[in-house]
Amino acid sequence: MNIVITGSLGHISQPLAEALLPQKHSITIISSSPEKQARIENLGAKAAIGSVLDADFLAHTFTGADAVYCMTPPNFRHPDQLAYYEQTAEAYAAAIRRAGVQRVIYLSSYGAHLPSGTGFITGSYRGEHALNVISGISITHMRPTYFYYNLLHFIPMIQTAGCIGAVFGAEDRLPMVSPKDIAAEIAKEITAQRQGMHIKYVASDERTCNEVAGVLGKALGRPNLVWKVLPPEQVLQSLLKHGMPENAANHLIELEQAIHTGILREDYDKNKPAYGKVSLEDYAGEFAAIYQKSTVHQH
Fold first, then answer.
1. Interatomic CA distance for residues 76 and 56, integer angstroms
2. Fewest CB within 10 A of the end CB: N or C in the chain?
3. Could you read off the pLDDT tens digit of each residue along the chain, which spans 299 residues?
4. Contacts of 87 (CB under 8 A, 6+ apart)
């Protein structure tokens, strides 16, 4: 197959390319970064350098593709996060129509069943809908749960306050996922023969937030690590103080509240997938290594 992958050499896109290349597919990887070209070509893929907001560039790159994997690259500096999600999805939709692509995989998120009240995830809801109106395509929306690597944001707090804290925590249940498990599921899905629209949840493990703190604490040699639920206003002020733009900070607070109330996972709970290969304990080793490295840099 002729497959186009967006997301450059990111957490999902690189392992996805590495899974597909040995199957003798022709892979093109889109990156906005010219300095990634050599690394992409060294993998055995073609590089297409340009912006996913440029529908002309996308249409040219998508032409002749049997399948495309579309994701929204993170851009916390954009003044309006939801508008950015919509602009990206609309550029994809225009390019898919013009290039006549038949098979599309879109990286969405759990919680994308809701039209509002989920912060950034509202962007995934709108992205799904922008693609669902394209006639004659077969599309799968991948809805991964909470990425393990988001836990890395708590490292400075663990180092300074000796705990984890967010708008969600304690006994809130948190389904989590490794990008490697997402890549493995996309690799299966991209070559599957499907008609119409499908939704596929991806998760690697699930625990309460206190259980997550326990596993991470054990890996860090901090057996008493706990995960506290903090007031939204306190978390918001901290985000703003550390330089997060207000629009992004407000969306993050709304997202954390949706995790805390459980609304983010309502549809996921009804359609739970089999867990992937990377357990929380597996990830905790990686977390501890990054933690130790950042501690060394502080001293």
1. 24
2. C
3. 999 999 999 999 999 999 999 999 999 999 999 999 999 999 999 999 999 999 999 999 999 999 999 999 988 788 898 999 999 999 999 999 999 999 999 999 999 999 999 999 999 999 999 999 999 999 999 999 999 999 999 999 999 999 999 999 999 999 999 999 999 999 999 989 889 999 999 999 999 999 999 999 999 999 999 999 999 999 999 999 999 999 999 999 999 999 999 999 999 999 999 999 999 999 999 999 999 998 876 65
4. 53
**Which candidate, 141, 110, 277, 111, places its Cα nearest to that of 204?**
277
The Cα–Cα gap between 193 and 272 comes to: 22
Which CATH number goes with the domain that contains 9? 3.40.50.720
Contact indicator for 217, 225 with CB cutoff of 8 Å: yes
Cα(154)–Cα(260) distance, integer angstroms:
17
Residue-number span of the structural domain to which 15 is assigned: 2-147+176-204
**pTM value surpassing 0.90:** yes
